[in-house]
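Lab channel / #folding
Pinned by the channel admin:
"Please post every new chain as: sequence first, then the structure tokens as a reply. Keep commentary short and put observations after the output so the thread stays searchable."

First post following the new format, from NK:
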Amino acid sequence: MGAGGFGGGHRVGDVPVSVRGPVGPRLRLLLGVLAAVAALTAGCAQTPQNSTTSAQASRDSSPTAQREDVVDKLTVFAKDECATQDATQVYPQCARFAREVANATVAARAAAHGPAEEAAVTAAANSVDGSVDRLTQGGCLLPPGQGPASDPAVCGPALASLQDSLRALRTAFGA
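Reply from TO:
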């Protein structure tokens, strides 16, 4: 046994020292790491799901709830000034509106029920996509000062087409 009774270690004053250095800081580090691992793994334990939470999640992800969400979103879009105002006048402020309506077509296609509704929704969603394409190709969705100035003779009718397509999409859902 080494000096001071610490197998192979040494003693410097009252602090035990191993061949690799002071024991105290290493021990504290080891305990700290173990505590951190214990804290991290404690959050990994499975907790039983609350039946109310499960029921809510099921209801929220049900086809009926998804359909209602799409109809609600389309209803909000239909109240936007970009859907209600003169298209020739308002199109410069409608880039975000056009993107959001276009994004909603994906959810609309997925939420449609039955062959008749699916056909009507698909036709209206395709019309929305075509209108947004015309707005994009005409440079109507660019912020002022980026790219060439957009032509109201192109952009007004393209936004009017989007307005009509949005109404058709809402109608396809019976809204």
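NK: Residues 52 and 155 are 49 Å apart (CA to CA).
TO: also worth noting, The chain has a mean pLDDT of 79.
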